[in-house]
């Protein structure tokens, strides 16, 4: 594992200054070549940084020395030289400039501009930043990274500790100790080693594929930095380096609003796009990220889109193939059960609807039965009245008079109308019973209440009867 110290190489923590600058052991400043070492300000796995005065030019600089001195291995020396060469090739207002590269008495060194202020890591210990402030900072940082990429240099260790903030709040990118020169063969003897800081490393970098990394690893790291500036914590955290690396490789980052309920939706989308596991799904360049952030700053729609549920599910399946097989089986069983339950529910619903229709049809049929009984009773009464009138007329010897003929015609017409009324009611009853039969299972005469009503119906008895017949009560 490469140096993962959070101490920047050109940062002066002002609060750490003592009343009188000393080296560290209480001795007065000492000479190192053309430099007077004033105070140690940072130390990491590869080098130590001093606040120093360049004697020939009488200026204060940050002087970085290789930590092992003349006993440094060839790999350490080569990495140290790579950092110096990479930074020296860059001239950008947001990249710490290199002044001089050399060695003295077998001790390799390089001097650079001393940034008076604090690192972004120190600033974030006080809490997250406002969204607008974080976006402005990241736009400048992304443009600096794009400048380096345009000159064939990958940083590969972007993190808040390597971003220095001057007294005006401007960011300065530093520490190119893990930089990769794209035009070189990259033949360091750290092949397949994990280079970088776990919480900010892209999955392809965390997997040890040092030769496969592209500019996309820096885009990923900037997404992690943006995430931390907004949420106040890194996308992945754990009790050990291996746990963090496992999450980087296997776990999707939580949305910003999990840690910051008021998080901006578009900034959440931008962060998660940078943190995609697959390089091709991230912003293609640091410039594309800067342009997207500028769209947000201007209040314009961003180009990235939110990842949907189906897409998140597919990504999880690809990372968890064994578990997903069992999950798929369980899901198929649940879907089958749900389908069967819906089928039963539909059957029950259909049965309930059919039962309601049958009840309505039976009620109408009872009404028709009542109407049929009333019509037949009226017809019987009319028939009895006509017979009685005939007998009365015959007894009175007036059967041949015009009055008798007229009254008999009227009674016969009334009988004919009642007969048609009975026929129509019977036809309607037959149709209604046929509908009930189609909507229900076959019913025996004993179980069919209508059957009892119809089969048990009989003409009224002889003799005078009431013309008002009560209708049967519905079931």
Describe this structure in words.
It is a single chain. The protein has 475 residues and is an alpha+beta fold. 48% of the residues lie in helices and 13% in strands. It is built from 13 helices and twelve strands. It has helices at residues 74-88, 120-124, 131-150, 203-206, 216-231, 241-250, 256-259, 265-274, 286-297, 309-319, 321-395, 402-439, 449-455, and strands at 11-13, 30-32, 35-43, 47-54, 59-66, 98-104, 107-113, 115-119, 153-154, 163-166, 171-173, 180-181. The strands form three sheets. A six-stranded antiparallel beta sheet has the order 2-3-4-5-7-6, covered by helices on one side. Strands 1-8-10-11 form a four-stranded mixed beta sheet. A hairpin with a 3-residue loop joins strand 3 and strand 4. Helix 3 packs antiparallel against helix 5 (216-231), helix 5 (216-231) runs antiparallel to helix 8 and helix 8 (265-274) runs antiparallel to helix 9 (286-297). Mean pLDDT is 76; it is low at 1-9, 11-24, 184-193, 441-445 and 449-472.
């Amino acid at each position: 594992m490469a140096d993962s110290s959070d101490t920047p190489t050109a940062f002066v923590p002002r609060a750490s200054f003592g009343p009188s600058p000393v080296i560290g052991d209480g001795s007065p400043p000492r000479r190192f070549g053309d430099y007077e070492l004033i105070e140690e300000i940072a130390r990491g796995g590869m080098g130590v940084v001093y606040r120093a005065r360049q004697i020939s030019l009488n200026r204060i600089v940050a002087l970085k020395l290789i930590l092992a001195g003349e006993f440094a291995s060839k790999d350490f020396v080569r990495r140290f030289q790579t950092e110096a060469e990479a930074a020296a090739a860059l001239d950008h207002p947001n990249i710490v400039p290199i002044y001089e590269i050399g060695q003295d008495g077998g001790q390799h060194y390089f001097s650079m501009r001393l940034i008076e202020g604090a690192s972004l890591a120190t600033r974030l210990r006080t809490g997250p930043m406002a969204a607008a402030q974080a976006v402005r900072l990241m736009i400048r940082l992304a443009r600096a990274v794009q400048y380096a990429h345009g000159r064939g240099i990958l940083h590969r260790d972007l993190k808040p500790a390597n971003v220095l903030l001057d007294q005006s709040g401007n960011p300065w990118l530093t520490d190119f100790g893990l930089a990769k020169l794209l035009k070189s063969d990259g033949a360091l003897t750290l092949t397949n080693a994990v280079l970088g800081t776990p919480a900010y490393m892209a999955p392809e970098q965390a997997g040890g594929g040092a030769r496969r990394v592209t500019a996309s690893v820096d885009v990923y790291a900037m997404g992690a930095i943006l995430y931390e500036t907004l949420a106040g914590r890194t996308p992945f955290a754990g009790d050990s380096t291996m746990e963090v690396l496992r999450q980087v490789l296997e776990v999707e980052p939580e949305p910003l609003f999990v840690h910051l309920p008021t998080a901006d939706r578009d900034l959440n989308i931008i962060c998660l796009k940078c943190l995609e596991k697959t390089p091709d799904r991230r912003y293609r360049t640091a410039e594309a990220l800067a342009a997207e952030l500028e769209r947000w700053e201007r209040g314009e729609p961003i180009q990235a889109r939110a990842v949907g549920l189906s897409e998140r599910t597919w990504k999880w399946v690809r990372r968890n193939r064994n578990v997903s097989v069992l999950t798929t089986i369980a899901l198929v069983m649940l879907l089958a059960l749900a389908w069967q339950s819906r089928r039963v529910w539909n059957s029950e619903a259909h049965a309930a609807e059919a039962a309601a229709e049958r009840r309505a049809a039976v009620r109408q049929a009872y009404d028709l039965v009542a109407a049929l009984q009333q019509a037949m009773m009226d017809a019987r009464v009319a028939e009895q009245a006509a017979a009685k009138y005939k007998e009365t007329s015959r007894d009175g010897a007036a059967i041949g008079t015009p009055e008798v003929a007229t009254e008999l015609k009227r009674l016969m017409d009334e009988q004919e109308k009642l007969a048609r009324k009975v026929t129509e009611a019977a036809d309607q009853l037959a149709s209604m019973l046929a509908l009930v039969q189609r909507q229900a299972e076959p019913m025996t005469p004993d179980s069919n209440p209508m059957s009892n009503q119809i089969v048990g119906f009989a003409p009224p008895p002889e003799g005078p009867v009431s013309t008002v017949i009560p209708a049967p009560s519905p079931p």
